[in-house]
Amino acid sequence: MQLPIYFFGDTHFKVSKSNQENKKVEKFSKFLDSISKDNTKGSLFIMGDLFDYYFEYKNQTSSDYEKIFTKIEGIKDKGFKIYFIAGNHDYWIGDYFKKYTTKTFLDDTSIDYKNNRIYVTHGDGILSWDNSYRLLKRVLRSNIFIKMYSLLPKNIALKIAKKISHERKDSHYLDQEKINRIHDELDSFAQQKIDGGFKYVIMGHYHHLYQKELNNGELILLGECNEENYNYAMFDGDKLEIKNF
């Protein structure tokens, strides 16, 4: 994996067009330009939920998100390596999506560079008390569901996805008590990985920034990337730093 490595995610690009969505795409484009301006080589690690909804049908030859893919293709043509780990909104990728990346991951993965081991996860499904989502996650990622869902007319599939996405949006608005519970669980999850030899555990999904130094390692929870701010991290081979664009 080429250095430096840039981590970001949770842009949640939508199919529907709006002024807000146009601004988000513009911000995304400027972010890619900024990290590739002085670097002809590097790695971009997209940590899931790039799209608010993405489902790829068999033998697909085009996408509603062509503008986004064109931007990614542009930085890849400059010499960047593109990596993608599936989120809970865009797990159902296929060959069309993969052609714009160097490598894709449907599950958690890791990066090893010298004495630095980085555990990378989107972050969903970690909370032990969120049993309903854990069950939903298993169902939605099953081969049976994917095959049956692909038989639905595209307009109906999109309506279902929008409804599920809208209902899950409530989980992003948290009071302090729930935030503390989430952080306690994520700390415990990260510490287990660190005890197993990782120096950093990095994730997204929860739409807010949180950083915690733990015993012999560090947890980095990145916030969302939208039309106003881009919360991302950069690994230069020695350290992993949180930045904002």
Write the layout of secondary structure elements.
Blueprint (H helix, E strand, L loop, with lengths): L4 E4 L10 H18 L5 E5 L19 H13 L1 E6 L9 H4 L4 E3 L3 E5 L2 E5 L10 H10 L2 H7 L4 H15 L7 H20 L4 E4 L6 E5 L2 E5 L9 E5 L4 E5 L1
The largest sheet is: 6 strands, mixed
**CATH fold call:** Purple Acid Phosphatase, chain A, domain 2
Q: Which sequence of strands runs across the widest sheet? A: 4-3-2-1-10-11
For the CA atoms, what is the radius of gyration?
A: 18 Å
- Top-tier CATH class: Alpha Beta
Number of domain modules:
1
Distance between the termini: 23 Å
Question: Helical element count?
Answer: 7
Instruction: State the helical fraction.
Output: 25-40%
Q: Quickly give the structural class.
A: alpha/beta
CATH architecture: 4-Layer Sandwich
The helix-strand sequence is EHEHEHEEEHHHHEEEEE
User: CATH superfamily, please?
Assistant: Metallo-dependent phosphatases
Low-confidence stretches: none
How would you classify the quaternary structure?
single chain
Report the principal-axis shape: globular
